[in-house]
Write a structure and sequence with these properties.
Helix content is about 10%, strand content about 45%. By secondary structure, the chain is mainly β. The chain has a 12-stranded antiparallel barrel. It is globular and about 60 Å long.
Amino acid sequence: MMTMTVFERLRRALAGACGFALCLSALPAQAEPELGALELLASPSETSPVPRGFLPGAAVLGFQKRYAAQDDSLYVVPGFIYVDEKFIYLGDRARYYLHRDGRVALFAFGRVRAGNLNPEKNVAFEGMHKRKWEAEAGVGANLITDVGLFTFRASSDITGTSKGQEALAWVDFPILFDRALVMPGIGVMWRSSRLANYYFGGVGADEVAPGRPAYNTGSTFSPMAAVVTTYRLSKQWIASLAFGYEWYHSGTRNSPLVQHRGEGFVLAGIGYVW
């Protein structure tokens, strides 16, 4: 049998992230990895780790707290993803591919970002404005190389909630075994001062309280890392396990609301190939 090229192995290995994508179908506004071009790598094969179509399932998600006054969280949630030739839906986000020519793909991107601070549910935030959900839209590109899969995307609030923007640069380095995938990835996220202040620790002049001074995070750059693993259990079932961490920029880390270095996540899920 001819030995696969690095490029061919990347195309197969990166496809395995689909099983993990199921976990993201109910992902709250917490640290998160970039999964790359799932649809770009999908295959109708009965043994493919990223089949096209509808995949229902369930996941267990654990997150470290964003704000010091919050508790770490654990969720058990149902979810699903949908993948076809140009469109991929991951629950809180979606992509539509506008162009692709083998190693390069361009896509439109949209997501719903959940709110993450509610003074009605936590007395520590009394006197603050609720951080509400927002819809975001943007564009991005994937580049498949012999080194790894690169993803670049930028998006902006389109609902007038935070009125902010963010941009991500990410690269995955997959290692493929028979039915298993181990895929470490690293990246950096830029967030505008408006988005960072709204969701990552800003305190407005009208939100000041004893022990809670006014605070401006400024724009932030946060390095991130994740490891995604998937395993094709059978023709119908896919299992996933992943963990990752985001190291806060000093603007977020030093907020009177935050006061810690970063946040991590662990996700485990199982999906049924419909």
